[in-house]
Amino acid sequence: MTNPDPTMRDNHGKLGIVQPDWMRLPYAAPGNRIGLFGGSFNPPHPGHLMVAETALRRLNLHQIWWLVTPGNPLKSHRNLAPLEERVAAAQALARHPRMKVTAYEKVLGTSYTASTVEQLKLRRPHLNFVWVMGADNLSNFHHWQNWQSIIEGVPVAIVDRPKATLSSLSAQVCQRYAFAQLKEKSADQLPECKAPCWTILRGPLDETSSTLLRNRGHTPG
After folding, report:
1. Residue 80 per-residue DSSP state
2. What's the rounded Cα separation, in Å, for the pair 99 and 82?
3. Which end of the chain is more exposed for a tag (fewer CB within 10 A), N or C?
4. What are φ and ψ of residue 15, in 5° steps?
5. Which helix (DSSP H) or strand (DSSP E) does residue 1 occupy?
6. Residue 58 and residue 203 in contact, taking contact as beta carbons nearer than 8 Å
7. Cα(4)–Cα(207) distance, rounded to whole angstroms?
């Protein structure tokens, strides 16, 4: 496993290159409610920001961490911008003081959300994590590696996205874990709930998508 220490040492114990801040885990006090918002963010856009803002507000989170993945295993990497560019673009967009951008998944050496969540829980056992995702990801959620361990490992907040309102409730994960749904009016209780527990957050919608921006020739940075 990759050494999570931000300073690297050679065989003689000498200090080497210090990793940038975005390769480290943000600080959070024990007991804090932390939203984990993962994605390629290729590029990040106002729709992503709206999801993050909705979760931050409705779940009463102390922070929301944008986890910029080195690459989504379920998507082609042919048009994937360099990690550093996507991190910089996410930082430029997520300027709220309680939004933190990190590419710590690269340090962990994990490619799958289930492994990332497991490792974060081991490293920060005193934080209350919530997995935050847009409803447009629900249709293929059951194809994610060890997807059951995600919803059984941390509470999950599903934020509504354009054209995904009705399909979200018919998704396999929602059907299978229907018994664990928390009413939206009680969403602020989600970070303190024991998994499996999930809720859908409805609010303002933004039609922007990363695919649309890439098709228009947009590149982050």
Report:
1. P
2. 21
3. N
4. -70, 140
5. none
6. yes
7. 37
Residue 13 backbone phi and psi in degrees, to 5: 80, 10
Measured in residues, the chain has a length of 221
Q: Which two tokens stand for residue 183?
A: 């009413």
Q: Which residue has the tokens 């496993």?
A: 1
CA distance 143 to 20: 33
3-class DSSP assignment, residue 215: helix
- Give me the amino acid identity at 37: F
Rg of the chain over Cα atoms, rounded to whole angstroms, equals: 17
Joined together, the tokens standing for residue 172 give: 């396999």
How do the pLDDT tens digits run along the chain, 221 residues long?
344 444 444 444 555 567 788 999 999 999 999 999 999 999 999 999 999 999 999 999 999 999 999 876 656 567 789 999 999 999 999 999 999 999 999 999 888 999 999 999 999 999 999 999 998 888 889 889 999 999 999 999 999 876 655 566 678 888 999 999 999 999 999 999 999 999 999 876 555 544 444 444 554 44
Structure tokens at 59: 């779940």
